[in-house]
UniProtKB/TrEMBL annotation:
PANTHER family: MATERNAL EFFECT EMBRYO ARREST PROTEIN, OS07G0240400 PROTEIN. The chain crosses the membrane at residues 33-51, 79-97, 118-143, 163-186. This is Maternal effect embryo arrest 60. The keyword Nucleotide-binding does not apply. Keywords: Membrane, Transmembrane, Transmembrane helix.
Length: 188
């Protein structure tokens, strides 16, 4: 994306967020929020990848016929990597867009720059989609962590099933609320 694509007219949105119909300071704040949340989730993913499920010193693993197999362990690592990729994609797009918006109007220019709100919204949407996919993959990785620690869901007790049910209900509900707010903000 070159600067011309972002800088075309948009109905008065200013890079400073001053006197426009929808100043980009709101967009900058949204991008900051995406970056901050993605940073926290990326830390969680790194901690998950640093955890070694084969470490005998880390007790509390399911044993016997309910022990998670190698496929669950492979999925655990794969979902962590997918999640990391999505969060990194989302954060990099948000950081680039934030920088592009700030470059559109350097402080030395007295007049407000015009920002193409359609491009701005599309890139914010792409960043939000990356965050949603990252959350989905992180949720699946956590389901696999539960299976490694408490046993496969097919033969595990109420604790494992309760943990997974909580994950599978609360995280998608939060993602739906997030998506609804993103789409609501696009209509205003």
């Amino acid at each position: 994306m070159d600067e011309g694509d972002l800088c075309r007219f948009s109905g008065g949105a200013t890079a400073s967020g001053g006197h426009g119909q929808g100043g980009t300071s709101i967009h900058i704040t949204a991008l900051d929020g995406i970056i901050n949340v993605n940073s926290l989730f990326t830390l969680a993913v790194f901690l998950g990848l640093a955890w070694n499920p084969y470490d005998p010193g880390d007790g509390g693993f399911a044993v016997g016929e309910c022990a998670a197999g190698t496929r669950v362990m492979e999925d655990l690592v794969s979902f962590h990597v997918y999640s990391f990729s999505c969060f990194l994609f989302s954060s990099l797009i948000a950081l680039c867009l934030k920088q592009a918006v700030r470059l559109v109007r350097p402080p030395s220019r007295p007049f407000p720059a015009r920002v193409n709100r359609a491009v701005l919204r599309a890139i914010i949407l792409a960043s939000a989609v990356g965050s949603v996919f990252g959350c989905g993959f992180l949720m699946m990785a956590l389901v696999n962590v539960v299976q490694v620690k408490l046993g496969r869901l097919s033969c595990a007790g109420a604790g494992a099933v309760g943990a997974v049910v909580t994950l599978v209900i609360l995280i998608p509900v939060a993602m739906l609320i997030y998506i609804a707010i993103i789409f609501y903000s696009f209509t205003r």
